[in-house]
Amino acid sequence: MELPDRDMCYRALQSRDARFDGLLFVGVTSTGIYCRPVCPARTAKFEHCRFFGSAAAAQEAGFRPCLRCRPETAPELASWRGTSNTVSRALALITDGALDKDAGSVEALAERLGIGERHLRRLFLQHLGASPVAVAQTRRVLFAKQLIHETAMPMTEVALAAGFGSIRRFNEVFLKLFRRAPTELRRKNSSGSSKRESGVTLRLRYRPPYDWDSMLEYLQARAITGIEIVENGSYARTVGIEGFSGSVQVRHSPARQSLSVTIRFPRVQSFPAIVARVRRLFDLGADIETIDAHLSLDPRLAPFIACRPGLRAPGGWDGFELAVRAILGQQVSVATARKLAEQLVANHGERVASEFASDPRLTHVFPEPRRIAKAKFIEVKMPAARRVALKELAEAASSDPNLFRPFGTIEEAIAKLRNIRGIGEWTAQYIALRAMRETDAFPATDAGLLRGAAAVDGARPTVPSLLIRSESWRPWRAYAAQHLWAACAASISKSRGAYA
Ligand SMILES: [Zn+2]
After folding, report:
1. End-to-end distance of the chain based on CA atoms, in angstroms?
2. Among the listed ranges 42-46, 90-94, 116-120, 277-281, which one has the minimum average pLDDT value?
3. Cβ neighbours for 161, distance < 8 A, ≥ 6 positions apart
4. What φ, ψ does residue 262 adopt, rounded to 5°?
5. In whole angstroms, how large is the CA radius of gyration of the chain?
6. Please, which residues bridge with residue 297 across strands?
7. Dist. CA 207–CA 101, nearest whole Å
8. What contacts 51, CB < 8 A, 6 or more positions away?
C-alpha cells in the first residue's frame, strides 16, 4: 500500500478525516504514542508526525497505542488490501492463528500461500509496513485491549482469549507497551457479567456506508431453522468450533458505525476465530467507498450502485457449511435449498449446549464434515447424485482441513474444488466468493446474475459476453455480482408487482 504524501496525511489529521480511519495511523515522536486520524487529542506538530499504513507498522516502529482514540477500534480493512490478494489471504490465516504458536511458522504460512518466505515478508513490508510476526503480535495486543476495555472478562481469560501463552507474558507485554498493568486499563464503569453463559459484547467497526437492510434480507432468506434467527433487526446463530458449541447475536449500531456482537461460548480461546467469522459473514473488512467508486465508473452500473450504497458481499460463516448450502442450492430456489438444509441439520446436526444459546429456538450446530462423511445415509429429500456430491464434499473436507481456506491463487483454489465430484464451475466460484472471500470471484453462469445483467444493460448477455463485460469490474467482481443479484431481485418484484 502506498501512503499519500506527508502533507496530505497531515491535512487528514488536522481535519480528523474519518475517511482515513483504518487506512492511516500517526505516530507522534514527542510522545511515543500512535493515534487514529480521528483522535480527539490536540493535533501534534507536523515535524513530530510519522505516518503508517497499519497499527502493526506504528507499533513495530516503537509507538504505543493511544488510550483516547483506541487504535484497536479502527475499522480493520483486510480486503481493502485488495491490491495484494496474497496479503489479504495471509491476514485471514493469521487471524485464524497461523502465527500464534511460534515465529518459525512464517515459513509454513508462506508455503500455504504458495510463495517463498522472503517474498511474503517483502509483501507485508510493502503493504502493511510491518513483518508478519509484528502484525500477529499487534493483533493479539489490540484484541486483548478491546476485551479489557469493552468487557468484564477476568484478566486470565482475556490473556487466553487473545492468544497469550501465559498471564505473565500478557502482563509483560502490556507493561512494556502501555506502561501500566492490564487491570489499570479497564474502564471503571466496565459493566456486564463475567459469566460465559451470559455473553461478552464487543463492537466491530466498519467503514460506512453499510447497507444493513440488504445484508439482513440476504441472511433471512437463507436462515436455517434451529441454527439461525433473523428478527427485529438482529441476527443470531449457533457456533460450533472444535467440539464446543455456543451462539452469537449481532446487531447494527449505525450511529457508531459498528456491529455489536454478543458471544456466548464456553471456550475463550475461540473468540478470535468467532470474531473473524462475524467479520467475514458481514463483510466488515471492505473499503466500500473505494469499491463503489470503482464500480460506478461503469455508467450503466452506476445508478444501481447509487441505489444501494454500501451493499456488501456476504461471506460464509464456515467453509464447509457454505459449500453444503451451495450444493443444496444447485438448480433449486433459495427457499427449497433452505428446506433441504433444515432437513440436513435436523437429521445430522449436533445439539447445541443450551446454556450458551441466546434463544431456545437455537437448537443445533451445523453438522461437521466427519458426521456427514460417516453417515450411512444422508437423510435429505433430493436426487441421489446430489447426495453423493454431499458425501464426497464431506470426505474431502474431513481429509483436508484447509479445503476452504485461501490457498495459492484463485484459479488454483477453484481447480482444487472442481476436483470434487458434483462441484462444477458455478459452485466453485460461489464457494470462492462467499467462503474464501475472493473479491474477484464471479459465477458468470448464474441465472440470477444473467437476469441482473439484463436489468442493468437492457438485454440478456451470453455467459462469454458477461465475462468480457466483467473485466472492467476487476478486482471487485464479487461486489458487482452482488449488485447484479440485487438488480435481478428488484426487477422480478417489479414485474410481479409484489413486495419491493
Ligand atoms: Zn489518539
Report:
1. 41
2. 90-94
3. 143, 144, 147, 153, 268, 269, 271, 272
4. -105, 120
5. 23
6. none
7. 31
8. 3, 6, 9, 24, 25, 26, 27
Highest mean pLDDT among 5-9, 22-26, 105-109, 227-231: 227-231
500 pLDDT tier (thresholds 50, 70, 90): very low
> Which residues is 230 bridged to in the sheet?
235
Return the exposure string of 182-221: e unless at least 16 CB atoms fall within 10 Å of the residue's CB, then b.
Answer: beeebeeeeeeeeebeebbebebbbbebbbbebbbebbee
Task: Say which residue the cell 485491549 belongs to.
Answer: 145
With CA atoms as reference, report the closest residue to 145 among 188, 168, 177: 177
Expressed in angstroms and rounded, the spacing between residue 413 Cα and the centre of ligand 1 is 41
Query: Do 227 and 366 touch, CB atoms closer than 8 A?
Result: yes
Residues 6+ apart with CB under 8 A from 468: none
For residues 291 and 479, the answer to whether their CB atoms sit within 8 Å is yes
Render pLDDT for 305-328 as a digit per residue (tens, 0 to 9): 999 999 999 999 999 999 999 999
423: helix, coil or strand? coil
What residues act catalytically?
A: 35, 446
Query: How many angstroms is it from 32 CA to the middle of ligand 1?
Result: 11
- How does pLDDT run across 365-397, given as a tens digit for each residue? 999 999 999 999 999 999 998 999 999 999 999
- Whether residue 112 has pLDDT greater than 70: yes
What are the cell numbers at 493?
A: 418484484
Residue 80 has pLDDT above 50, yes or no: no
Q: Which stretches of 258-315 are DSSP H helices?
A: 271-281, 288-295, 302-307
Ligand 1 mean position, distance from CA 35 (Å): 4
CB 367 within 8 A of CB 321: no
Measure Cα distances from 338 to 159, 327, 460 in Å: 39, 11, 28
Taking the CB of residue 36, how many other CB atoms lie within 10 A of it?
27
Centroid of ligand 1 to alpha carbon of 20 (angstroms): 14
The verdict on pTM exceeding 0.85 is yes
Residue list, CB under 5 A from ion ligand 1:
35, 39, 66, 68-69
What pLDDT is attached to residue 81?
Answer: 46
Q: What is the pLDDT of residues 150-189, one digit of tens each?
A: 999 999 999 999 988 889 999 999 998 888 899 998 877 6
